[in-house]
Amino acid sequence: MDTPAYRPDEYNQLPDQPGVYRYYNESGELIYVGKAKSLKKRVASYFGSNAGINQKTRRMVKEIRRIEFTLVNSEFDALLLENNLIKKAQPKYNILLKDDKTYPYLLLTKENFPRIYPTRKVIPSRGTYFGPFASVKAMNNVLDLIRSLFTIRTCKLDLSPYKIYEQKYKVCLEYHIGNCLGPCEGLQSEPDYQKDIEQAKYILKGNLGIAKTYFKDRMQEAAQNLAFELAQRYKDKLDLLEKYQAKSLVISQSIGSLDVFTIVVDEKVAFVNYLKIKEGALILSKTVELRKRLDEEESVLLLTAIIRLRDQFQSDAKEILVNVPIEDELTDFQVIVPKIGDKRKLIDLSLKNALYYKKEKALLAGEVSDKKSRVLRQLQSDLSLPELPDHIECFDNSNIQGAHPVASMVCFLNGKPANKEYRHYHIKTVEGPNDFASMEEVVGRRYQRIQEEGKPLPKLIVIDGGKGQLSSAVSALKTQGIYGKVPIIGIAKRLEEIYLPEDSYPIYIDKKSESLRLLQRIRDEAHRFAITFHRNVRSKQAFGTQLTDIPGIGKNTAEKLLSHFKSVKKIKAATKEELEAIIGKDKTQKLLYQLNQ
């Protein structure tokens, strides 16, 4: 049961019973969920003495303003409730299971003559979901097996008894090639169809043994009735099942059904591999990454992964093999650390998967980091820069015959776009089509603002244009007193020439060079950003002009309308009352008269 909220200084009033506790900060945000055999003792450990509590935990404790808890019957119930609350709220101090995939399921529909098909959306009212599967390939293997063994329809027809009786449908190609027995025309009864569905369910649950017994019994029954052709068909299906199971066999079928979990820990991250064994067959292998939040111990991280992965992949195995002892006393399943034999081999197999995943992540992170620094070092060499250009800003202008002049600045940090640092500029001091003066204005405004705010200057400034635009940008830097402090170049589009200040001759970087491709990417991004902004400004201005052409509708009125409705189309769709609320009765009458002409 849930209880009234307690203040942090009231932790001694908590009961000495198992439960789940929740910490909230000053703004009422849930920041941590924990489980305990004794709520009183566990919560007291945070507030009593700081001995043994790490820095991250102290930081969390400082934020706590309210404590709530829920009593449960056992520690295992606390585990399940804790897992559900963490999944729902994702508190910032709880262990983060880094896995943002949407997994595929197989859905057995709730309808007459049920269908089985793949989906990634779980809507319980539609039927029974089996999965999730770790990959589409694994799911398709099961679906292909089911469709090879059983005659289950794939059409989307509504096979209600009335529509079948009224002969609304005709059999399709699937009937003629033997994949369906024609329930749409009443050629197969629903009880007979349901027999296949029941057997398909066992396979979806991983219980291949029951399905094998079914086909074996049907084969023997057909043989006794001298229906040898039918008996052969059942034998073929039995062979197909055994072939499928043999592909997945792990060590021996006598090992039964169990879960295997192993953990490998880094300083900030843990990797947990999960093997799901059903009737001696490996039906799932999944490795996940857990982000530490409070320097949790191995056993805590592993138990967190066990609860979440078993819940996610719907495991009901009563035996769990692990490589690290679990301190919590759990009565709902048995946790074993095997030392020898087939079960130890399963632990070794799981550890191999976890270590491989960890190695791949490290290699991938290293490759990405090395590539970025390699390209930046190459650019530094090509342009003879004093520092690694890990902060680059690029400027571009946009106008059409001088109309609606705007400019853009894009920022790249460590070779990647930093979208939050992008800036748009309306040209304020320049009249007419003058790209040079416009460039001088926006560069000057940018670095005046940077210096006023005390922010760091970039390591390289890139100007989209040739000598003229570069000279204008240099003038702006001189005005701001930072010329010579920041390297600046211009890049001309036609021949990808690189211009340096006060140098009449351009330099050329190898067309296949990664450093030139980075400059081109930055230049193209600045151009895209400027063009998009210019298009929006031009579009908004066009809307405004369309309105101000109406007698009695001035600029201020047009701006009010556009600010509220966003477009002329929405203004036309607005009711008379809505318009009157914005611009009054008289102007609404004039507006509606002109718009409806």
From TrEMBL:
GO terms for molecular function: DNA binding; excinuclease ABC activity. SUPFAM superfamilies: C-terminal UvrC-binding domain of UvrB, GIY-YIG endonuclease, RuvA domain 2-like. It is found in: Cytoplasm. Residues 16-95 form the GIY-YIG domain. Residues 260-477 form the UvrC family homology region profile domain. GO terms for cellular component: cytoplasm; excinuclease repair complex. The keyword DNA damage applies. GO terms for biological process: nucleotide-excision repair; SOS response. InterPro entries: GIY-YIG_endonuc, GIY-YIG_endonuc_sf, GIY-YIG_UvrC_Cho, Hlx-hairpin-Hlx_DNA-bd_motif, RuvA_2-like, UVR_dom_sf, UvrABC_protein_C, UvrC. Belongs to the UvrC family. The UvrABC repair system catalyzes the recognition and processing of DNA lesions. UvrC both incises the 5' and 3' sides of the lesion. The N-terminal half is responsible for the 3' incision and the C-terminal half is responsible for the 5' incision. Interacts with UvrB in an incision complex. This is UvrABC system protein C. It comes from Lunatimonas lonarensis.
